[in-house]
Amino acid sequence: MPAKIVISIPEELKEEADKLEIEIRRVVEECLRRAIAAKKKEVLAEAIKQFVEATNGLPVEEWVETIKRFRKSIDHRYLSNPKA
Fold first, then answer.
1. What digits encode the pLDDT tens for the residues 30-74?
2. What Å distances lie between residue 55 and 43, 59, 65, 72, CA to CA?
3. How far apart are CA 23 and CA 8, in angstroms?
4. The model scores a pTM over 0.90
5. DSSP assignment letter at 22
6. Nearest-5° angle of CA 44, CA 46, CA 49?
7. Main-chain phi, psi angles of 31, to 5 degrees
8. What does each C-alpha distance from 74 to 37, 51, 67 come to in angstroms?
9. What distance separates the 2 farthest-apart alpha carbons in the chain?
10. DSSP states of 32-72 as a string?
């Protein structure tokens, strides 16, 4: 279900967008999608950095065991249908 947001922009921007037939809703939606993707990458990169720092010196056998436990704990229904 779509959510509504209300923003205020300078009138001259609105007029210019109208003249140029720019669909503001599409521009805002695309910018928001890009911002969300960038933030997710940033959060993931930080989590990976912290994980690597926390596991510094971990023997290979423990890495393998940790990955196996992680794979078993994943909800595979979510991975097969990420929109669920």
1. 999 999 999 999 998 888 888 878 877 778 788 788 878 887 877
2. 18, 9, 13, 20
3. 15
4. no
5. -
6. 110
7. -60, -40
8. 22, 18, 11
9. 64
10. HHHHHHHHHHHHHHHHHHHHHHHTTT--HHHHHHHHHHHHH
